[in-house]
Design goal:
InterPro entries: G_TrmE (IPR031168), GTP-bd (IPR006073), GTP-bd_TrmE_N (IPR018948), GTPase_MnmE (IPR004520), MnmE_dom2 (IPR027368), MnmE_helical (IPR025867), P-loop_NTPase (IPR027417), Small_GTP-bd (IPR005225). This is tRNA modification GTPase MnmE. Belongs to the TRAFAC class TrmE-Era-EngA-EngB-Septin-like GTPase superfamily. TrmE GTPase family. Its cofactor is K(+). The chain is α/β, with parallel strands linked by helices and about 450 residues long. The protein folds into 3 domains: about 110 residues, Gyrase A, domain 2, CATH 3.30.1360.120; about 120 residues, Four Helix Bundle (Hemerythrin (Met), subunit A) (Up-down Bundle); about 150 residues, P-loop containing nucleotide triphosphate hydrolases (Rossmann fold), CATH 3.40.50. The chain has 14 helices and 13 strands. The strands form 2 sheets. A 7-stranded mixed sheet has the order 8-9-10-7-11-12-13, sandwiched between helices. Bound molecules: guanosine-5'-diphosphate (GDP) and zinc ion. Zinc ion binds next to α8. The site of zinc ion (ZN) has 3 residues, from α8.
Amino acid sequence: MSEIPRTDTIVAIASAAGRGGVGVVRISGVDAARIGGRIAGLLPPARHAALRDFRDASGTTIDSGLVLHFPAPNSFTGEHVVELQGHGSPVALDLLVRAACALGARPARAGEFSERAFLNGRLDLAQAEAIADLIEASTVEAARAAQRSLEGELSKRVHALAEQLIELRMYVEGALDFSDEDVDWLADQALVKKLQTVQQDLAQLLMQAEQGRRLRDGFTVALTGRPNVGKSTLLNRLAGAEVAIVTDIAGTTRDVLRENLNLRGLPVTLVDTAGLRESGDAIEREGMRRARVALAQAELALFVVDARERLTAEDRRLIAELPSGLPVLIVHNKIDLAPAAAPAAAGELCLSAANGDGIDALITELHRRAGLQSGETSLFSARTRHVDALQTANVRLAAAAERLLRSGALPELAAEELKDALVALGEITGEFSSEDLLGRIFANFCIGK
Ligand code: GDP
Ligand code: ZN
């Protein structure tokens, strides 16, 4: 099996911050068994738990609990690991960490256990990221998707695609090596077929990754429109449907209200902006400036109008002033007050934030706009980084196809493009990764993971 790396020994509290029924301290590295043994006395056999007193270097008992020993390489990090499961007292856990440090360990950096697991080949990069995504998942669906990525679902698909690309590249290079004269690539049905298949598979993976990213990152929707059309009521209506899961993000300004909602499994950040209108008031102008900043960051604008007035001239002007490129969904609110109103234009929705009519259709439309079919669950979680890499691979593959299938083919360049596509895929699983990239990824993990 893999060689035990010569690293130092790290220690951290692995359980959640604060008081709890149980608290876990994890020690990993070459000295884990020695340090764990000094704290807990004799270590139990591999992967067995034993009840022990935990003592500091001077022999004072800090806590008591279960000790587990995972000898390398069969541990989370691939190194020797000792876990101390004590009572969930933050003070006692802290003393355990200090005791381990006094015996030669050092406090782990954020994500360092996962980073070691990656470096020791226990997980690939996409799987390591999925651990953090599972911990941070905001909906059940997002947690399930992250779990599937952790099991290697995304990695498996990326590997399968990489295999196809390797085969294609070998085919092109082979044909190059064995032909003296020009090859008519277009006439090569096997090649055309292979190219089509891999392009289709890549496009499908890209779509699935975008859905997975959506479940992880959610969908940022800005509520906007004239004052009093019912934006805040709509926010409360959408939030009310999922009251238990509504959270306020701390630190947001009062004037732009942000709510994190779970709308049938889709995490939506709904931003209620101050009503847009001309104003001389300095404070209101500032509120509007912030509203525009929020709009610039949104992925969809829910533009609310009063169903009784339909789209007024001012509404049209406000819509024209929205950031260019921001998709707009026009919502006619207060239909309970306008039962006789003509139906909204195609692509627009009618609802009543007050009584809830039309809200289901709105949520379905939000799923559709987010690229998720309602009720469809994502196959795995993904990050923007993964989607970007797949897009790069897609562009490279298209360029390769273009260079092969055009008259006056440039197969050497096509082979290069295929190689670049493979490098992009390798970045997802970490086969190609810079220290810089790894540093950035793992620094966003929590300490103890
Ligand atoms: P905002 O300024 O756009 O945020 O509008 P509010 O949410 O504060 O609503 C303005 C007024 O319209 C309030 O008195 C709401 O109770 C009312 N309102 C909002 N939505 C509806 C609706 O669907 N039907 C009815 N009848 N009244 C509504
Ligand atoms: Zn409001």
